TrEMBL record:
Highest taxon of the lineage: Bacteria
SUPFAM superfamilies recorded: Metallo-hydrolase/oxidoreductase
Reaction(s) the record says it catalyses: 3',5'-cyclic UMP + H2O = UMP + H(+); 3',5'-cyclic CMP + H2O = CMP + H(+)
Entries under Pfam families matching the protein: Lactamase_B_2
Gene3D superfamilies with a match to the protein in the record: Ribonuclease Z/Hydroxyacylglutathione hydrolase-like
Metallo-beta-lactamase domain residues: 13-218
Protein name, per record: MBL fold metallo-hydrolase
Listed PANTHER family: EXODEOXYRIBONUCLEASE WALJ, METALLO-HYDROLASE YYCJ-RELATED
Function noted in UniProt: Counteracts the endogenous Pycsar antiviral defense system. Phosphodiesterase that enables metal-dependent hydrolysis of host cyclic nucleotide Pycsar defense signals such as cCMP and cUMP.
Organism listed in the record: Paenibacillus aestuarii
Length: 266
C-alpha cells in the first residue's frame, strides 16, 4: 500500500487531514474538539486511537482547537517549530515534555518509511508551514493559509501526485462582502489567504504529468462557492495549461471528510 489520505474537514470552522501509509497514520492539525475529531474519523472507518503523531501548521484556532485534548487523550507526540510551540504553550494546556517535538521549518522527519518535510509559508501566524509527504516516489503536499505562493513554496510542492491547496475566496465576492475593510485587507494581503485565481495560477507552475488530483481547501463560507472555485481554477488551467486534462479538481467540506484517496491508484 502506498500513501492514502482524507481531508477530514476544511474551512474557517476547522481543519484536519489524515495521511496513512499502511504503517503509520499522521494527523495534520486538530481544528475540532476531540469528540468531533473522533466522529469525523469514524466516518472513514478510522479509529482515533490509531493515530501515531500530530503535525501542526500554525496556531490559529481553526487548526488547533482540539489539539491539547486530543493529544492528551491518545498520548500523542505533537510536532511543530519553536515559534509555533511558544504560541501553543499558551493555548492548548499542559502537554508532557516528551510529547513536545520540535520540528524546525525546512526539516525532514521520518515516520517509518513515510518522510515528512515542512516548508515556510506566508500567513499572519508565528511561523506557519506547509508539509510534503513522501513514500517512495509518491508525493503529497498540504498547503493552506498562505497569502501568496512564493517561488520557494512552488519549488517545494512541484511534481506532487496530489495537493491539498487553499482556494479560500473569490476576490470580487470578498470585496463586495460584509466584512470590515481591515479584515478584507488582511485576507487579501501577503499574509492572508489564497484566492481562487491565485491558486489556479500557481497550479499552472507546479503541476506536472505526475499530478493527478488537487483538493480545493479552506474555502470561505461567506466569500466563495465550491462550484465557483472549481470553475475559476479550471478556466485558468484550460487557458494556460491545456495539457492538464488528467488533473482532477476535488471538493473538500466543512462538515464531513473526503473519501480516501490512494496515490498509487489510477
Amino acid at each position: 500500500m502506498g500513501v492514502r489520505f482524507t481531508v477530514l474537514s476544511s474551512g474557517s470552522t476547522g481543519n484536519a487531514t489524515v495521511v496513512d501509509n499502511g504503517e503509520v497514520k499522521v494527523l495534520v492539525d486538530v481544528g475540532f474538539s476531540a469528540k468531533k475529531m473522533e466522529q469525523l474519523m469514524k466516518e472513514r472507518e478510522l479509529a482515533a486511537s490509531s493515530i501515531d503523531a500530530i503535525l501542526v501548521t500554525h496556531e490559529h484556532s481553526d487548526h488547533i482547537k482540539g489539539l491539547g485534548a486530543f493529544a492528551r487523550k491518545y498520548d500523542l507526540p505533537i510536532y511543530a517549530n519553536e515559534k509555533t510551540w511558544e504560541e501553543l504553550n499558551r493555548q492548548i494546556g499542559e502537554i508532557a515534555e516528551d510529547k513536545k517535538r520540535v520540528m524546525d521549518t525546512g526539516a525532514m522527519e521520518e515516520f517509518g518509511t513515510l518522510k515528512v518535510e515542512s516548508f515556510g509559508i506566508s500567513h499572519d501566524a508565528a511561523e506557519p508551514v506547509g508539509y510534503c509527504f513522501y513514500e517512495g516516489e509518491q508525493k503529497l503536499s498540504v498547503v493552506t493559509d498562505l497569502g501568496y505562493m512564493s517561488s520557494k513554496v512552488k519549488e517545494k510542492i512541484t511534481d506532487s501526485d496530489a495537493l491539498v491547496l487553499e482556494t479560500n475566496h473569490d476576490v470580487e465576492m470578498l470585496r463586495m462582502g460584509h466584512y470590515p475593510w481591515s479584515i478584507k485587507r488582511r485576507i487579501l494581503g501577503d499574509k492572508g489567504h489564497l484566492s481562487n485565481e491565485a491558486a489556479g495560477e500557481a497550479l499552472c507552475e507546479v503541476m506536472t504529468s505526475k499530478t493527478k488530483s488537487v483538493y480545493m481547501a479552506h474555502l470561505s463560507r461567506d466569500h466563495n462557492l465550491m462550484d465557483l472555485a472549481r470553475l475559476t481554477v479550471n478556466n485558468i488551467l484550460q487557458e494556460r495549461a491545456p495539457e492538464a486534462k488528467q488533473l482532477r479538481l476535488m471538493d473538500t467540506y466543512f462538515d464531513r471528510p473526503t473519501k480516501w484517496d490512494e496515490l498509487d491508484s489510477e
